[in-house]
Predict the structure.
Amino acid sequence: MASLSNKVIWVTGASSGIGEALAIALSRKGARLILSARRTEELDRVKQNCVGEAQLLPLDLTAADTLDDVTRKALSLYGHIDVLINNGGISQRSFVHETGMDVYRRIMEVNFFGGIALTRNLVSHFVSRKQGQFVVISSVTGKYGTPFRSGYAASKHALHGFYDAVRAEYWKDNVRVTMVCPGVVKTAISYSALKGDGSKNNKMDDLQSKGMPVEKCADAIVNAMENERDEVYIGGKEVLMIYIKRFFPSLFSKIIRKVVVR
């Protein structure tokens, strides 16, 4: 089992939800943290709840022209980085026919392009040190799509293809990839989810309100990091659907069309 003590871990999307819970859990493991998100005041609040070292590095994953400079700043904070946790993301609450293309593009910019830009910037650093780990917060919707989440599911599916390639290309350099697929977790993600016109959903979904406690999810992710798991599924019965789709695709199609996801 790999120790996280004294590891330099960069967490994006650290201002709330899974990112916040991960930051606190990792700080208790003795990690040295770099906390990133757009809202500096929220990052500072999270930092106050961490123990040990934590540096703040605001970023906007949609500002592609800033991400090279942000990566250089991240590397300068402790002199190196051991782990990047790509957690920054945004969800969706709309049917395909009512969703503007600008909404799909924004989801892809945040959930896919921003994270892989940071990965591309860091991979040479990991290779030069012959160690490094990318931890990617995907979703069970990275394994199967559901109604009302077409763009969100597409962005998460894209992550799996990209990081499967990263894992295969750099395994000889001791660069590890851990894909994390949470199910329904009780966070505020449904509030900031985009509706078809690009406006925020601004409410807690019934399903989300009954989800797994975020602290429990964070503990499971930390365990997957320590064990350098390639892929881990975290949740309840929604995880079972991954296996139903894999082994009984026709049955999956019949079930998923009836699923209520809002």
Remarks:
- The mean pLDDT is 96.
- The longest strand covers residues 175-182.
- Residues 8-256 form a domain with the Rossmann fold fold (CATH 3.40.50.720).
